[in-house]
């Protein structure tokens, strides 16, 4: 029996404004994670290990940052003569042309192309979460259920539940209630932005909703589409038992890195049967020099440490000079921390320079320094502060 024909649509076009300075000059899927990875590496690696070779990536905001990373899709076995990786960009020339205004709107704009491809199942995923999942197992469960949509779910903290689409699930797995970012969540069971749709029924429904909402627009999947499918009893849940963390805010991005600094990280990024793949770098081995001290940290290729690094993640090319201290922080590629400087509970974007004797962050909220910004010698960026990237002439 032939395997069902599966198409994965990766939504990579959002601005990611909740990540603030980190997404001013790059798309959210291209934000670095755990030193050497990018956020989009997680859904693409899931596609690879799930045996799904037809993957479309919808881009819009800062698309060059995603395009440069994905290249021809080779790291995820998507550089194929037939099928493989395809980039979907905004277009003109039909009523569906123009800028995407929400995830459901984006799906509607690509619906004719999806109909032409004619998949048995359409998997729609975001690219701002860290997790491992066999999409084909979810597809199999979806096709066996007769549902119009299967929502992959996970448990979240009650204090955080209003950030997500929240569902109530019956004993038989049917989703009996769905609310998008509710003020008063009915449960702590959240959709984790992985959905398997029955393509024809879903696209027909989406067109009908488009006609109903008119100029108000389809917005996101959670605004009209998923509530309608739930109301008609056509939504099912598939529970993800393993680790999942949304990294769409500065705080959650920082906390996700903390998760991977433990002696027993929540997922093994180098697991032999399911490694997370990324575009290869060109950096030499990391070096700990002179009196450099490392404690409970991740060091990427090309890092040079002569100072004290504790509980931190150092991306490729980071330099920490003698007498400098980096603690509980995430340093993205090319950051340079000069002698005697201190960086605490902070996220520093690409090529930031922290001057000699300067202080960045401290106890309290996460401090964020934008790409290529310079903290002058002896300068200070307080805990919870923001130092944007310099203006260009």
Task: Provide an overview of this structure.
One of its GO terms (biological process) is glycogen biosynthetic process. With 393 residues, this protein is α/β, with parallel strands linked by helices. The protein has two domains: 6-259, Spore Coat Polysaccharide Biosynthesis Protein SpsA, Chain A (Alpha-Beta Complex); 287-387, 3 Solenoid (UDP N-Acetylglucosamine Acyltransferase, domain 1), CATH 2.160.10. The chain contains eight helices and 31 strands. The protein has helices at 41-49, 63-70, 103-109, 111-117, 135-145, 199-213, 225-231, 250-259; strands spanning 6-12, 32-33, 37-38, 54-59, 84-88, 121-126, 129-131, 149-155, 165-169, 175-180, 189-197, 235-239, 244-246, 287-288, 293-295, 298-299, 304-305, 308-310, 313-314, 319-320, 325-327, 330-331, 336-337, 342-344, 346-348, 353-354, 359-361, 367-369, 374-375, 380-381, 386-387. It has a seven-stranded mixed beta sheet. It has a six-stranded parallel beta sheet with strand order 14-17-20-23-26-29, with no helix packed on it. The longest helix has 15 residues, at 199-213. The mean pLDDT is 93.
